[in-house]
Amino acid sequence: MASRSLELYVFNMNLSGILVLKSEWREERSGNQNEFVTEEIVCLKDGKPLRMIIETTFFCGWRMGEPPSATVISEQAISEEEYHQIIEERGSIEDTEVYRTAMGEIYRLRDTLKEMIPNCPNCGARMQERTGRFGEFWGCSRYPKCNGTQKLTGELKRRENEILVKIKELEERLKE
Ligand SMILES: [Zn+2]
Prior knowledge:
With about 180 residues, the protein is an alpha+beta fold. It has helices at about 5-10, 80-90, 95-115, 155-175, and strands at about 15-25, 35-45, 50-60, 70-75, 125-130, 135-140, 150.
């Protein structure tokens, strides 16, 4: 079973040999409509087998673009035998080398995207893409407190779309 949280498991939590046993998804009914993925996994941390339950929050609404955050709900040490038995029963482990390579590339592309976002000329806050009567533009993320805007050029938009397509392709590859 592939996992949307895998990059967090691998990069932020330094887990390997991951197998997802159970995955549940829910969405906030109101507010930002953040998404939550709760997963039960077996994995290795510093070579020690663990069974963990982890909840990942994927931010939406005004927090869209923030990196997802993972919370460990429970963590239990299991024996090597138990770990190998589960892996044998449930099929092969995710090939984390493949993930590391693809994820490394995704991270680089996301950083490039972030670097393309200008700061507000009035207050210095990060800007967000907005659509108005005359097309797309950069607007201050502190709007309506700040009315700062900046031109969003077609050239930048094109580059941004190219990068987004590349990211999507890599993400699709990870799901296969
Ligand atoms: Zn501003």
